[in-house]
Structure formats: C-alpha cells, structure tokens
Amino acid sequence: MAGHDTPKKIHLDESEMPTQWYNVVADLPTPPPPALHPGTHEPAGPDDFAPLFPMALIEQEVTTERYVDIPGGVLDVYKLWRPSPLFRAKRLEEMLDTPARIYYKYEGVSPAGSHKPNTSVPQAYYNHQEGITKLTTETGAGQWGSALAFATAQYGMECEIWQVAASYKQKPYRKTMMEIWGATLHSSPSELTEFGRALLAENPDHTGSLGIAISEAVAMCVADPNARYALGSVLNHVLMHQTIIGEEALLQLAKVDETPDVLVGCTGGGSNFGGLAFPFLREKLAGKMDPIIRCVEPAACPTLTKGEYRYDFGDSAGMTPLMKMHTLGHSFVPEPIHAGGLRYHGMAPLVSHVYNEGLVEAIAIPQRECFAAAIDFAKTEGIVPAPEPTHAIAAAVREALACKESGEEKVILTALCGHGHLDLASYEKYLHGDMVDYELPDDAIAEAMKSVPVLN
Amino acid sequence: MAGHDTPKKIHLDESEMPTQWYNVVADLPTPPPPALHPGTHEPAGPDDFAPLFPMALIEQEVTTERYVDIPGGVLDVYKLWRPSPLFRAKRLEEMLDTPARIYYKYEGVSPAGSHKPNTSVPQAYYNHQEGITKLTTETGAGQWGSALAFATAQYGMECEIWQVAASYKQKPYRKTMMEIWGATLHSSPSELTEFGRALLAENPDHTGSLGIAISEAVAMCVADPNARYALGSVLNHVLMHQTIIGEEALLQLAKVDETPDVLVGCTGGGSNFGGLAFPFLREKLAGKMDPIIRCVEPAACPTLTKGEYRYDFGDSAGMTPLMKMHTLGHSFVPEPIHAGGLRYHGMAPLVSHVYNEGLVEAIAIPQRECFAAAIDFAKTEGIVPAPEPTHAIAAAVREALACKESGEEKVILTALCGHGHLDLASYEKYLHGDMVDYELPDDAIAEAMKSVPVLN
C-alpha cells in the first residue's frame, strides 16, 4: 500500500534525470497576455530583449512548444547535484502526530544552496554558446548572485554582480562565496554607472535597493557588446528551467506509488513555485491527478492575495517591459522580513495567469509562524531551511495538522528550495524573541498601487 | 573498462547501507597499546570511564570484535542523509588535465554539514538507551557541537555545550545553529564551574581554550548523575562509528569496478581519516587491494610527521587517561590556522598505531596550498569545502598532477568531510591575500614535548 514502506530518501539515478524542460504555456486553457513595450505599449518583440538576453533565451521566453531539450552541456553541470533527492518527512510527521504523508523535494544540495542554479546554468550556457563572455546581474541577499557566479565559473565566463549596499555590508560571507567562484562584486549604488554616481553624489552612504542594482547591472551590460544580463526569476524561460524540479518529483513519487493531494510552494518571483508546480498542473489538466496547488507568500508581501492583476513594471525604476501580473505596485517596498527572496512587488506573469484562471490557490503566512515550523522541521528532519521555504513548510504543517483533526491520510508535497546556512542571523532573531510580524495596512497597498501605469 | 563511464554521483540505496561498523583492532598485526590511568599508570578499566560514558560505548572502546551492529534507532537517523554520495571529480580532473581518476566521498550532506553526526548520533542513542537525559561537551569552531546538538534533538535529550570564548564571540552563526537544535550554549570559561569561575576572577575577558572547555564539560557531567560526556574524535569507538564512510565507499567503488591506488584523508583527531581508511586497510591487509593510504595534516600542527609516539594526555589540562599516540606535547598550542578541526596536539591512538606500524603514510601541507586547491575544487565541482578537507583536496591534487607527469591512470580516493558554508571568513582572508603560512620552529616542538609525561 502506498506510503507504508516509503524509504526516507527517494532517489533518481542520473540515467533517469529528465532531459527536457516543460513549458506550461502549451497546456494552458487560455494563453498568457504578452509583455508590452514600456513606451509604445505594443507587445514587446525579440528586438526589445536582444540587448539583454541571447537569442536562445528570447526564443524560450515566447515559445509555445510543450517541451524544450536540455542541452548536454547543461546536463553535465546539472549532474554535479541533480537529480535532487525527494525526502519523506517521516520524523516531522511523527512529531506532528499526523496521518498525512509529507514529501519535500530538496534543492539545497546545489553548490549555491538553492534552486537558482537550475536556471543560472542554462542561462550561462546559452550566452556562452552565442559568444558572450560576461554576464551582469544584481543580487540582494545573495542567493541569485551565488548561483550565477557558480554557473559562469562552469563555462569560464566573467560575472559582475551589483549587490544592494546594505546587504553588501551586512552579509560579507555571501560576497565571499561569490568571489570563490570568481565573480566581481560591487556595492550598489556604485561609481561605475552614471545612475550610481548620481545617487552617491546625493548621498555617499546610500544603502541601495534591488531596483537600483538592476539598473546598474543593465546599464553595464548594454554598454558592453560582449556582455549580457541575467535574471533569476519572474520570466517565462526562468520558470521553464525550474520545471526540472517538478519533473523529477513526479518520477520520484511514481516510484513509491504516490500522487499528491496538496502541493504547496513558496512564491517570491515565482520560479521555485512554478518549477515544482507546473509539471503537476499538466497532470491535473490532463485529468491524471487532482492535487490542490497552493502558493504560499509572506504576509508582509502578499502579491497574489492582496495585489491586483495589472500590467506593471518588473523593476522599481520602471525600465523593463510591462508585464501583466499580480502586483502591489512597483513602488511598493516590503518590510524587511528575513525571506529576502520573497520581497518582490510583483509575481511571475505565468504564476499570476494560472492564479487568475483559478488553477492554483494562494495563502499568506506571517514570518514567526514560518520560523516556528522551520525549527520543528530542523529538529526532526535535520536540515535548517532558508527563510523563503519556511513559508512552504509552515503551509505543509498547517495542512498536516488539519489532517490530524480530520483523520485524512493526505499526501502533501512541497519543495525545500534552499538551506539556511547563510541565513542563521534570522534564526538568531527568532530564537531570542527579536523577530516581529509586520502589519500591512490596506492604505499602504493603495498608495503603492498608484505607481501602476494605467493603460489606455 | 573501469572509469570510462562512471556516473558523476555513485549512489547507494538505503537498502544497501552498511548495518555494521568495522573495528580495525580485530585485523591489526599487533594490538594497540592500552590507555593508562593518569595516576597509577596501570591500564585504564571500565570503571575509570563510567562517570563519563555509557557502558555500551565503554564496551565498544575496548572490544576486539571485528564488526559491531548498528542499532535500528541509529540507522533511522542515519537515513536522514546516509548513504552519502561518492562523487567522481570529473570536472576537476579536466581542469588539472590529469589521467588520474579522482573520487570523493562527500560527508557535507549531513544536517550539521560534516562527518561528525556519524558518531554523535550513536553516542546520543546509547546514552538515551541507558537512561541518560543530558549530554555535555566542548566545542571550538563548532562542528562537533553542531553535530551533538543535532543528535540529542533526535532522541529528545538535553545538550549543554561549552564553546571556547573566542569562537563564541567570533562565530555567532555556529552558535545559532546549535540553538536551533535546542542546545544550551555557554561561553567558556563560564561562571558555572569552579574552574571557570577561578579563571574569570583572574581575567574577566579570558578567551578560553579547548582544554578549558573540556574541563568544564567534564566537571558538569560528573556533577549530574543524569548526564554524560561526549567526545567527537580520538577514541576507538568514535573512529569505529566513522567507518560507515569507508564501508559505503567500498560498495560504491565496487559498483563502478574501481579500486583505489591512493587514498588520502585529512587528520586532526583522526576520526575522518580512520572512518574512510580503516575498511580499505582491512582489504589491503587481506591482500584484496593495495592502495597507498596517506594521512594529510596541516604543516602548522604536524602531529604524525614531527611528533613523537609517546603516552600523553588527551587534553591540555592533563585530566584524561594517558593514551599512546603521536603527540606534539599536550601543552602545544598550534598557530591559528583556519582548519580549526585539525588543531590538536595529539592523534587518535588507532591512527598513531597503524602509522607506527608502517601501514599508512603521512604528509603535512601548509594552508595556502590547501585553499588554492579548494578554490579550484569549488570552481569545477561546485562544493565549497570546509578548511579541514582542503588538506585532503590539496593532497589529491598533488597526486593527480604527479599522474599528469607520469601518465599513470591512478585511482585517487578522498573524503570531503564537510562543507565550508560557515567558514567563509577563512576564504575571504585567502582571496584578499591576508592568509599566512606559519613556520613551525623545531624548538617550539621541543619545548612542548617537555609536557609529555615520562613513564617509569
């Protein structure tokens, strides 16, 4: 009987690793709305993206093919840590005294410690194939910067990273990790761009922001014909690269004869959630299984549950194409919760679209509940989660406790998208009672929503 | 043909995990000399150890049985991360342009991030079985404290850790990791012991030492009938628990039809080395393979290559039984190299004995060569190693480059006994040119050797 002799760790051999990414667009009942040029408000074309991305990725951004082959040069690097393990959380289940069976796909086994290398590696690969020798990017807390630094090292490319000044100063160890892989780090705002110089002239102690760091990375990439820019979430091709998570999880669950009743994933920009959920959404749309699929976002940045589905800019400065997405307004600045990767004003257009179509649900959870669940998880399953997936764990625990009440033997699936080895300061605050849950007044959202452009 | 289609990651299923530890004593040509009572200089008996350790571990310390069954309650916890992967370092081989094939057994997948939980888990288990509710220990940099905190959490036990004051202040994140698993941390010297109070009265800003922290942990354990003490290396039972590393590696290499020509492992107290090497030494003594087996120690603490094989104390304060081991003298204070886990004046009696018998070799490597090798490793294989196993990696690189010269296709095996996520400050120093190689004058050793007791 399913679930009764499950091993702790459900393994896939290298030979069983999926060799294609999945493009959910091919199976959606309605197509997602296109990105718009920020000036003309016409659908953005390949030329609009060419200064930033290589042609292969631009094609992946708009393709309607159901599957895209993963190149051999990417598979070789994936094999450094993939297939990633699927764990049965038996010891957590025992602690919760629940009849539910909880499975988690663990992405913290990657060199950078999160799911981000699933896309940084192909992004570096395609750029390298097209003769690009340098990638620029921004990073906040540093997970994405680490992943891109690792990926560019695999193809002998340069990597230049603008890190938000506050993080650059507060998190020296993340910076060191990126430098180990050969990346060059700049505190943002920097003296290297006109924008940065102007901001520093105004305020030499400027603490920076993700929006400013994006502007600097983009400006430096555009100025160098051998350089391109890389983005760690939000875009269609990024989510597609991440579907290897869900494809592997499907194969692993099939090995133990299980199908999920509930799938929960944390959502910031949407790449971890989309990566896990989209292959299961395909199965659901095909009538092969019927899981509830639930986004979990931080209560301090409730993009799906409290934002509006509107065309908005991807960055704070309003330089990117307009994307139709759930947004709190691109001027929205979330409170400083510890899950830095979930502090984004918008949501991936693909995740926004499937949510708008009613194919997935969403809930928001305050951070102290998340850390409480993470401590229970660490004490039983061993792994110390990154702050972002503590949200997914808290949602899984809620569901497991509901099963304890109802007696239902539900199968719960989630992704533990990274370890917390470089985020222990947040746990210290939680353990010592210094962590707060932020209230988010409705008028703060109303105010930020004023920054969303009104189209026609 | 062996080595030509090796997968990147050589997997063992849970069902293939060894269920016995290996006791090398059963196969040694001559028995290792016994521990001696520090007062009488007679062989130490079970009663001498009873206030510190549970009877099951005391029996394991002196057993001559070849194999000891791993209890089910330990296997259940091992399965959180074991069997650990054996990797083929293909990308490092390519960078070095060597015909050698390099394999590394990766122990950083454990929740605490090193091989230490292989022994902290059974130590907690046996204590729990005998009704003990609390374990005390010391920790320096924090790897051992983390491992014991994790292990005691698995059995619902208390864990009280004395951390060297300097590390307690400088490495707050390690402390947080231990607290996540529910341990209580004290800066040592502490106000909790007579010894600690006396030292603080002399100097309120005392930075502590491992020897002092051991004395405090032992004093608190002896004063509490429900508490025992746990040690993370050196002793026979600790090395035996670690043999699961080598037993798994043997099975994994057999899967790809390989036998090692050279085995290298870093040595501090000796548990990582013994754990990997002893099962291979058994095969060598049985004539089934003939690897060179080589210890790699830091040039700043060259216990085997420059120490003497003498009876000496295990701790700096001279409270423990006397053990015959390679020692630099228990008053030896190594320079502050970053591989904190290798800064030990002595060497496990079992490792010392096999070295003295000529069954294994030893070399010493300065730390900058180790970090240089680690950076190459991180850039190719992805994983950022802890400072301790950078020594093993440097030795593997030396051997691989010798193969490049000679054209030999040697099979090199090593253990990557932990990741460096909580040791990035050492990499920062290396990358920014702030790391030095310490000279170790012969007269410093001669001076410290004066602290070794002269027996009879």
UniProtKB/TrEMBL annotation, chains A, B:
The keyword Amino-acid biosynthesis applies. Its cofactor is pyridoxal 5'-phosphate. Keywords: Amino-acid biosynthesis, Aromatic amino acid biosynthesis, Lyase, Pyridoxal phosphate, Tryptophan biosynthesis. Gene3D superfamilies: 3.40.50.1100. Residues 80-418 form the Tryptophan synthase beta chain-like PALP domain. Its EC number is 4.2.1.20. Belongs to the TrpB family. Tetramer of two alpha and two beta chains. This is Tryptophan synthase beta chain. It comes from Ilumatobacter coccineus (strain NBRC 103263 / KCTC 29153 / YM16-304). The lineage of its organism: Bacteria, Bacillati, Actinomycetota, Acidimicrobiia, Acidimicrobiales.
